[in-house]
Amino acid sequence: MKLVILLGDGMADHPIEELGGKTPLEAAETPNMDRIAREGVGGLARNIPPGMPPGSDIANLSVMGYDPKKYYSGRAPLEAAAMGVPLGPEDVAFRCNLVTVDRDRRIMVDYSAGHISSEEGRELIEALAKAEPEARLHPGVSYRNLLVQGGDEGLHAVCTPPHDITGQQIDGYLPKGEGAAALREIMLESVPILKEHPVNLRRAKEGKRPANMIWLWGQGKAPSMPKFRDIWGIEGAVISAVDLLKGMGVYAGLEVINVPGATGVLDTDYEGKVAACLDALDRVDFVFLHVEAPDEMSHDGLLDGKIEAIRRFDERVVGPVLAGLERSDHEWRVAVLPDHPTPLSLRTHTDEPVPFAMIGSGIEPDGMEAFSEEEGGRGGCGTVDGWRLMGMLSEKPIPN
């Protein structure tokens, strides 16, 4: 049996007046996801356990079959694994965003510095590393970078994701608590260095947002989690443009497949991801294929962009994967879902359950008519903990 999870990050939303009370998922053309719902079974997945923050790290860990209450230790360590940055037992990794802040009004303008390119981001991080040689800074993809501290420094500080405070003053959201003073100092010392850097001077001339500050958050130590094969008895692979998902794959012992044209935004190489997925299924029995674009459109507050991202995910990922599996000689099952809602009205994540649907060998329809938040509530599976989905898809015993 070949198993595939297709995840559209942040697809779920709230009803929007401009759409006549529909959600973007309901407004977008999604014939392939609708088919999965109509011909399969579904329900609502609670990917964020009660009391945990609604991050993509926790949500995707759930969907991959790991109970976050047991295995989650922070976002940044997962990204460190994807970047090949080793963490010692006393090391604490921090996500280090390049952000745009209105320095006069002290407002978070853009958590991604205009989705700065990886090449520009690398130049800026390298400049900061030279100016702060004691800081272990590592460039990543676009605005997503990494800082590693030793000796538990900052592990227990209260840090806020920058995408949660777009348009708000930053003063109340700078790191607080134990070890926070050193983190605030690093963040504020980045401002004069970045202000005069040639990359930012060039971006300003081109009318682009400058990366004029770093923002530290998502800290944690290296997690200890069992390999995917040891839980489910099969080998698998993960396909994503973002280091977070790749890092999960590293710790889970999954094959991490890099698609050269995968960007994490609307122009990602959908066809490349599909080809990599179908090719991988000749070697392994499970593929987790993740598309980031709907979430990024939500964080940017772009309604038309989110609808288009959902449409492209359905047309250029879901449909071709189904077609490829149907051409194969394998028995197969496919699940489709978001990880969490990212409502456009909030421009950040919420912890509400999200719709899911499964289709394939041995699955009989349960009465859903389409793939949406509302229809998920009518699904025959009811509301389930997200980390149980893998067991439902594989029909294998769910580990306690």
How would you describe the overall organization of this protein?
The protein is α/β, with parallel strands linked by helices and 400 residues long. Helices cover 35% and strands 19% of the residues. It has 15 helices and 13 strands. It starts with a strand and ends in a 6-residue tail after the last helix. 52% of the residues are buried. The mean pLDDT is 95.
Q: Would you summarize the structure shown here?
A:
It contains 15 helices and 13 strands.
- The CA-CA distance between the termini, in Å, is 23 Å
Radius of gyration: 21 Å
Helix content percent band: 25-40%
* Structural class determined from secondary elements: alpha/beta
List the topology elements:
Layout (H helix, E strand, L loop, with lengths): L1 E7 L15 H4 L3 H9 L1 E6 L9 H8 L4 H4 L4 H8 L8 E11 L4 E4 L7 H14 L4 E6 L2 E6 L30 H16 L2 H8 L7 E8 L7 H5 L3 E4 L3 H10 L2 E3 L12 H11 L5 E6 L1 H7 L3 H25 L4 E6 L16 E7 L12 H4 L6 E3 L3 H6 L6
